[in-house]
């Protein structure tokens, strides 16, 4: 058996029927409780004093676990700051009959050391033993920046959303109101619900939230909701034994086969309870898929916002989805799978035909969702299992055939693409060239499927659509744009429009 590292804490739990949901799978709420407890123990092992949960990053659930299997949770401090620490959490499920292990989730949480009296806290640095420790230590700083800028990023995206007409809000057959998904519940905090500090256990609050959110999601889909992810959230304040916790959940928005449910938690002591004045201690957003009795994925109905609050929650879900996409590919642990094929002159034609066909198929897929719309530029995204694709649509006041000539001439690309480096080889799909072997001075990224589609609007204007099916090696370049904390895609698209519209005909029109 593999021994844990000195700074690592492990928890192994055999999944019993009491831990399961009606489908015989491990309850997501129970798993959240175990995750929080393990992370807390890792934080206290490093700090040497009591610690409390400050925030939890996005938690993505890749696999489900069933009764009879064993869950193992590994937690360790990746980096210590002044008074806070980032904890990395890895959850693995093992089938005891086959011995096969599968990754359930990789997550990160932040814990704060509780001072004793007036003593100031200065956490010791983390001892880095392996190359992976150094990688995670550096990434922890980047993840912290994302957390610190989360609220500003969200506000900017909400402002951006209010400045364009969302076509989804138009009247459409089958749209539903979310009023029927509202659920309220109350819990009295008892000693078994408290942690070793006397406050309500953070994992318990998360479990209660998940339970209520599941009910809300099921009211919309009339199927079996499966928790896909939990959005990043902060604990706003503590609660204690004797407090009444009031939970309110409602569906905010739907996105094809997933739905976002928002949950708000307020705490009341006896006096606050009698006055009806509670403390807002937490809000979380949980994303669900759903399956029917045949284990088929359910498509959720689209939401029809009615009240001002409906619209706020509706647009908030769109902004959070965009931020979540970006953060997902910042923290992604998926390994790159080579997609290149060997190229030579004999397969040039077949490769070209296959690339064009792949691009047309990508453009024709359903499920594209708008994530940004500013002036002449719209950005759409499409999630399919582990694949993410981006579609950037631009309106150009130039004829389609002239636009095609300008964009297909890659020698002109440095004139409009500020990110283009002349030593790069640009292809619709990456190929392996024996004449250009790998070079240690450059990082090679692979393109699965990418390219432009140009459609004429009239004789003097067209739409230019750029598609990219993102591979793991290039996802970091898109993460900031998807998450809303970078505008490089919009800037490049604007530069491309300017380049095309300012180009002189130079007799090109007469050649077509």
TrEMBL record:
Query: Which InterPro entries does this UniProt record tie to the protein?
Result: Cytosol_ACT, HOTDOG_ACOT, HotDog_dom_sf, START-like_dom_sf, Thioestr_dom
Where is it localised? Cytoplasm
Q: In which pathway does it act?
A: Lipid metabolism; fatty acid metabolism
| Top-rank taxon, per record | Eukaryota
Show where the HotDog ACOT-type domain sits.
5-117, 179-294
Query: Per UniProt, which keywords does this protein have?
Result: Cytoplasm, Fatty acid metabolism, Hydrolase, Lipid metabolism, Repeat, Serine esterase
| Gene Ontology CC entries for this record | cytosol
GO MF terms, alphabetically ordered: acetyl-CoA hydrolase activity; carboxylic ester hydrolase activity
> Main subcellular localization, coarse class?
cytoplasm
Q: Where is this region: Disordered?
A: 1-22
Q: Which reaction(s) are listed as its catalytic activity?
A: butanoyl-CoA + H2O = butanoate + CoA + H(+)
Indicate what this protein is called per its UniProt record.
Acyl-CoA thioesterase 12
The gene name reads: ACOT12
């Amino acid at each position: 058996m593999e021994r844990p590292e000195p700074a690592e804490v492990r928890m192994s739990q055999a999944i019993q029927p009491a831990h399961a949901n009606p489908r015989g799978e491990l309850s997501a709420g129970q798993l959240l409780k175990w995750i929080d407890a393990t992370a807390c123990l890792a934080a206290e092992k490093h700090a040497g004093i009591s610690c409390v949960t400050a925030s939890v990053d996005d938690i993505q659930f890749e696999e489900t676990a069933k009764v009879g299997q064993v869950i193992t949770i590994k937690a360790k401090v990746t980096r210590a700051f002044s008074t806070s620490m980032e904890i990395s959490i890895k959850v693995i499920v093992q089938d005891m009959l086959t011995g096969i292990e599968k990754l359930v989730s990789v997550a990160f949480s932040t814990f704060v050391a509780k001072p004793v009296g007036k003593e100031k806290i200065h956490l010791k640095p983390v001892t880095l033993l392996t190359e992976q420790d150094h990688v995670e230590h550096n990434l922890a700083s980047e993840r912290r920046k994302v957390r610190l800028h989360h609220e500003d990023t969200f506000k900017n995206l909400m402002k951006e959303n209010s400045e364009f007409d969302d076509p989804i809000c138009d009247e459409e057959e089958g749209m539903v109101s979310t009023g029927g998904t509202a659920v309220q519940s109350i819990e009295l905090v008892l000693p078994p619900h408290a942690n070793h500090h006397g406050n309500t256990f953070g994992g318990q609050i998360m479990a209660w939230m998940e339970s209520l959110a599941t009910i809300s999601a099921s009211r919309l889909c009339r199927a079996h909701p499966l928790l896909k992810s939990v959005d990043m959230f902060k604990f706003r304040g503590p609660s204690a034994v004797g407090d009444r916790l009031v939970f309110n959940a409602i569906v905010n928005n739907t996105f094809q086969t997933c739905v976002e449910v928002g949950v708000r938690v307020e705490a009341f002591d006896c006096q606050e309870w009698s006055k009806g004045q509670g403390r807002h201690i937490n809000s979380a957003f949980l994303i669900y898929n759903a399956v029917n009795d045949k284990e088929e994925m359910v498509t959720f109905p689209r939401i029809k916002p009615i009240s001002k609050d409906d619209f706020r929650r509706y647009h908030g879900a769109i902004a959070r989805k965009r931020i979540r996409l970006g953060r997902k590919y910042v923290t992604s642990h998926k390994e790159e799978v080579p997609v290149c094929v060997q190229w030579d002159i004999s397969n040039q034609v077949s490769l070209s035909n296959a690339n064009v066909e792949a691009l047309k198929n990508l453009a024709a897929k359903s499920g594209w969702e708008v994530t940004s719309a500013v002036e002449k530029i719209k950005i759409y995204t499409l999630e399919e299992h582990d694949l993410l694709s981006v579609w950037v649509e631009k309106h150009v006041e130039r004829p389609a055939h002239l636009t095609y000539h300008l964009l297909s001439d890659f020698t002109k690309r440095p004139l409009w693409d500020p990110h283009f480096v002349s030593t790069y080889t640009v292809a619709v799909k990456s190929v392996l060239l024996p004449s250009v072997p790998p070079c240690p001075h450059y990082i090679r990224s692979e393109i699965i499927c990418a390219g432009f589609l140009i459609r004429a609007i009239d004789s003097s204007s067209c739409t230019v659509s750029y598609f990219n099916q993102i591979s793991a090696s290039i996802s970091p370049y898109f993460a900031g744009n998807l998450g809303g904390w970078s505008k490089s895609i919009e800037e490049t698209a604007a530069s491309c429009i300017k380049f095309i519209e300012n180009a002189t005909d130079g007799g090109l029109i007469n050649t077509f």
